[in-house]
Amino acid sequence: MKEAKLHSRDKILFFNKEYIAEFVYGGIDGAITTFAVVAGAEGASLGISVVIILGLANLIADGFSMSVGNFFSTKAERDSFEKHKQVEYWEIENLREREIEEIREIYAAKGFKGELLDQVVEVIISDKEVWVDTMMKEELEMVKGEKTPYKTAGVTFLSFILVGSVPLLSYVFVGNGISANNPLLFFYSCMLTAVALAIVGSLKSIVNEKNIFIGIIETLSLGGLAALLAYFVGDWLEKLFV
């Protein structure tokens, strides 16, 4: 029962847990950076169209940049793993006795002795795949991740766009019965962003298996700090140059 519960945590909302983590961090980054742009534009008293243009430009550019970064990061990890794995295959073929001794030392350090140690070593070296996997995990401490570069980049970009667009919603739909000069527009943006960050913060806590309340507070605090800095910088720049 306990084992089944642990396996059930590998997926959240029908998605692999590792990709949920990418969605969470992409969403947090998207919401905070876009909201910072909105806050800065508000602080500088820029027009509604400028807020939308800057926000959307930031959303696309930063979302693409972040997804590309995640793509190359994940690809580099997988390439490094495969490179070291090929080295281990070569060493098993060409330095067999040394590699056998390394396996013996690894399991001796774990407490295996005498005949039991000999049996363990014999079982491992009898299968080349098992042997290489053991060396990767025990000697190099490397484990191949399940995430693929393309899926990682795709999930990151999707979450950045979806969650990052929330701060702009009140401005994009300004024509729906709301005056463009209405000071409540920024207030609505703040509230919508707070809700989005709270949801993403709770998901972050689930992924990290930490207290949900703390995760929400941390995420909201980070977003609020970024917005305050952007707002006052925008206000200062407006007074300086206008």
Automatic annotation (TrEMBL):
This is VIT1/CCC1 transporter family protein. The keyword Membrane applies. The chain crosses the membrane at residues 20-41, 47-72, 152-173, 185-203, 212-233. It comes from Salinimicrobium gaetbulicola. Keywords: Membrane, Transmembrane, Transmembrane helix. InterPro entries: Ccc1_fam. It is found in: Endomembrane system. The keyword Transmembrane helix applies. Signal peptide: none annotated. It holds the Pfam family VIT1. It is a multi-pass membrane protein. It comes from the Bacteria.
